[in-house]
Amino acid sequence: MRKIILLLTLIALVACDDKPEGKVLSASSGVLNALTVVMPNDMWAGAVGEAVREKLAGPVHGLPQIEPMFEINQMPDEAFTGFMRKQRTFLKIEQSDSSGTSIVKDEYARPQTGIIVKGPSQEVIINQITQDSAKIVNAVKNAEFTEKIRQISLSLKEDEPLTEAFGITMKFPTAYRYAKKDPNFFWIRKDIPHGDMNITVYEVPYSTVDRDSNTVGSLIKMRDSIGGDNITVSEGMRFITEAAFAPYLEETTIDGKPAFQMKGMWEVKGRYMAGPFVNFTVDDKENDRYLVLEGFVFKPSASKRDNLFELESILRSVKFVDKKK
């Protein structure tokens, strides 16, 4: 009996949060790409709410139609109790003597990311939101990427072919299939209602990418050449970057390695087929190459944000390892 009591005590201690209250944290909840915003209703209806909507509900880059970065659910502080505090991500606006933006982890549930923005006046709060918008967006995005990979990891596809060919691991679900496994080009696909989701992986010589005056141009030339040669379309047609939409480019990292992230639109020249893509061109200087990871979606006349988000989550899960012999 004494052993049972001791065991139960140990379990309780492990389950307890290490905060002073010693409370047990339950699992967080919430759909992906949704953000709970806690602030007074009158503030939400005014300039502060407008600043939040501008920075956090603005359109996602690289999509053919306007889709918000996050679905926002606003509530006043008095409603942010009980189950509502279990949301995986939340932004809380507080009027106080001090000002600043802070990130809190596992405050009411686990895993949970909270962002607290404080200021003595609405003007200061608006400036704080504007100044720290990238920090806020990245905190929420990183939490959502982590959750998506957790979901994906429940049923993983075998990625050993990628390790053998490119020296990487990548987490993607069993719903995907290998459509092409050439020595230098992999094409991985997933069927969805009225369309498909696609991943391509290949490598190019280190000299391929112009890092100075025309980075975007050299990346487009690269993907149009290699993608066009390897993505199968009807005879006389070609898979290319759509010229009517200028791609969005930024620098990021994949597994600690510097990378260019490009978002834009692809099309099949000569046929009415198009959709969004996200491309990571990873600087793998140690192996004298760039590793190219791309996801693209074909899903006409439907929202594509969550599809592109899944592909980006998968590509961001890539880790570099030694090639298997």
UniProtKB/TrEMBL annotation:
<dbReference type="Pfam" id="PF16125">
    <property type="entry name" value="DUF4837"/>
</dbReference>
<dbReference type="InterPro" id="IPR032286">
    <property type="entry name" value="DUF4837"/>
</dbReference>
<protein>
    <submittedName>
        <fullName>DUF4837 domain-containing protein</fullName>
    </submittedName>
</protein>
